[in-house]
Fold:
Amino acid sequence: MSNSFVAASALTRFGNPRMRMPQHWQNATVTALADLTPTVREFCITPDTLAVQPQTPGSHLQVRLQIADDDTQTRSYSLVGEPNAASYRIAVKRMDAGRGGSRHMWQLTTGDRLIISEPNNYFPLSFDSDDYLLIAGGIGITPLISMAQALARHVERSHARVRFCYGARSTDELAYRDVLEAALGERLALFTRDANQQINFDAEIARLSATAQVYCCGPVPMLDALTAAWRAAGRPLQNLRFETFGNSGHVETQSFTVRLPRHQLELRVAAACSLLDALETAGVPVLYDCRRGECGLCAMDVIAVEGEIDHRDVFLSAHEKVASTRICACVSRVVGGITLDSAYRATA
Ligand code: FES
Structure:
């Protein structure tokens, strides 16, 4: 186990990993769309043949996107809200400066076809605590909605407490606010940057019981700040559980160079492409599963860095990130250039 925190990854076990973990891909149709905020759109996706699979709070769905004739990419989206028997629901924030996945999703209309996986969960909710704090930043709200709904029911049957801190850029970007208010009432606290409101992690942590669990999804800088506050409070690291979205780094997304001496390759990774996608396109075998910086399967050994790694995963420990001896190829990026080793070994 690499991460001392219980990131989604740390709860996952893999028996016999292959170059790609098996996914049960299936055809599906976009059956409904709803604009929740100026930049967040909800998609209802109905599978063609297989029944909608059971989904636990924190689950996500993978979607194959045909960005261009020669460019198929895979994205992971958290499943939103209570499961239903007919369809899956995801919400996508439009990122105009992103890698193209969200722009592609926003071009879809009802009746359009998709290829989707079955649900997976690397960010599971446990019901063994007496006190829960959920923290969401921006589109990080998506995995936490079903957690909030499940915990709202749970606390009715137990003596557990729950509080939800939800931060967004502006009031009109608070997607699912009505759903959360209905589930949690006064246990929901809203923070918006346009009102100069910020979540005070020190104060929020101080009001928790000794055995409280925190579940957080948001941009990497938010997770860094929460992690620092959690450490400073001397809290048990296993009770801080988080997930992020891979397009949120410490520096702006930009192109970079990757060298693989074992393959005698030098590649340019475009700003619109992940390191993992670039390696796959070049025919370099790389293990992966979640493509969200959670499972750690895609972590590669770093031989040298000319510049700086922008670690965007929640799998590697803080110590490993500082050491920069490994990089999660699915989400993390580089400013400058990097030389990597791969799992490939020529047979004698
Ligand atoms: S594929 Fe899971 S961390 Fe990269």
Q: What stands out?
A: Residues 1-22 have pLDDT under 50 and may be disordered. Residues 288-291, 293-298, 313, 315, 328, 330 surround FE2/S2 (inorganic) cluster (CB under 6 Å).
